[in-house]
Amino acid sequence: MFQKNRLAGLRFSGRSFTLVPPMKISPWVLAPLFLAMFSFAQADPLRVGDAAPAVSGTTETGGTLNLGDVYKQQTYTLVYFYPRAGTSGCTKQGDSLRDAYDQLMKKGVAVVGVSTDTVAAQLKFKQEQNFPFPLIADQNEVVIKAFGVPTRTIPTMGPLASRQAYLIKDGKIVWCDYKASTSTQAQDVLKVLAGFGS
Description:
It is a single chain. By secondary structure, the chain is α+β, with helices and mostly antiparallel strands. It contains 8 helices and 12 strands. It has a single domain, classed as 3-Layer(aba) Sandwich (Glutaredoxin), CATH 3.40.30.10. The chain has helices at residues 2-8, 27-37, 67-73, 88-99, 101-106, 119-129, 142-147, 185-196; strands spanning 10-12, 15-17, 40-41, 56-58, 64-66, 76-81, 109-115, 135-137, 151-154, 158-161, 164-169, 172-177. 30% of the residues are buried.
């Protein structure tokens, strides 16, 4: 009976409705939709010689850190960006800077980490890894956008910052690392400082 009604059309409240077979969607239509799920936000990154953004962010303590103030406290400031607290690559990157922190401090380098993680996630990350430097929970991407760091959005994870690092002196960008390393991040910075004669 059901098959007969399907062939003849369904009747409801005095009207006939014809069942339409499912549409075949071309892969060329699906591809952009799939890519949109993993969208990238591209900005113009800062370059050597540009003024370093004197923006503020919320740290793992819930307090406010003004980068403009940090720049004045040491000869250099390293602001580094990472995608997600607690992940393998981000842990290696942070551990590299932690292990070389005494060397960096002797060179007059302050270190600040930035990601889109929550305050709680940054606090947990810092405590687990014993980082001696502050981590900014840049959920509103104020710091990320100020530096022009690209982000990519992944479903269930939200926007993630690209792994980059910027070395600042006298309020100016003096070195940019657009594809920052994980386990050798500190060594890369020390090599640059050696080239500066620091």
